[in-house]
UniProtKB/TrEMBL annotation:
Transmembrane segments: none
Native source organism of the sequence: Metapseudomonas boanensis
Lineage, broadest ranks: Bacteria, Pseudomonadati, Pseudomonadota, Gammaproteobacteria, Pseudomonadales
Pfam families: His_Phos_1 (PF00300)
Record-given protein name: Phosphohistidine phosphatase SixA
InterPro entries in the cross-refs: His_Pase_superF_clade-1, His_PPase_superfam, SixA
NCBIfam families: sixA (TIGR00249)
Length: 154
């Protein structure tokens, strides 16, 4: 199985609530650079946090890739979600190639947990960073980090 982890693009600093922050113009551009890393790759599903910036990021990726399915919304992909609980939700899914669009610190902790088997070594993820993990099972410590793509910020 292949798991792609994408942190949302740069978002505006302020909104009524954190969940309502929208992508900046620069953030949209960075997301399209990240999406280019997925070009030609097969995806079975795209799941995103319910937060506006993650939904916008997922939609940009969906459009850029010509992905035919809808973007799924997963309430367990928010910034403060527990990576161990997320694994329980992921265990119920049958996709082999899955893209998760989410936030820090969650995305860094989830990647670290899957790669290292614990959360003490989170994988550094900037805005619009994309990590590719591969393994037979979504089990802590049993996934391998294949690549991390960071957008060069100007």
């Amino acid at each position: 199985m292949r798991l792609w982890l994408l942190r949302h693009g740069e978002a505006e600093a302020h909104a009524s609530t954190d969940a309502e922050r929208e992508l900046t113009r620069h953030g949209r551009k960075d997301v399209l650079h990240a999406a280019a890393q997925l070009a030609g790759r097969h995806l079975d599903a795209i799941l995103a946090s319910p937060y506006v910036r993650a939904q916008q990021t997922a939609e940009l990726v969906r459009e850029a890739l010509g992905f035919r399915g809808a973007v799924g919304t997963a309430p367990w992909l928010t910034p403060d979600s527990d990576p161990r609980e997320a694994l329980n939700f992921l265990a119920e899914r049958s996709e082999g190639d899955l893209l998760l669009v989410t936030h820090n610190p969650f995305v860094s902790e989830l990647a670290g947990l899957l790669i290292n088997g614990h959360r003490q070594e989170p994988l550094p993820m900037s805005t619009a960073s994309l990590a590719e993990l591969e393994g037979d099972l979504l089990v802590p410590g049993l996934m391998s980090l294949r690549a991390v793509h960071h957008v060069r910020h100007h």
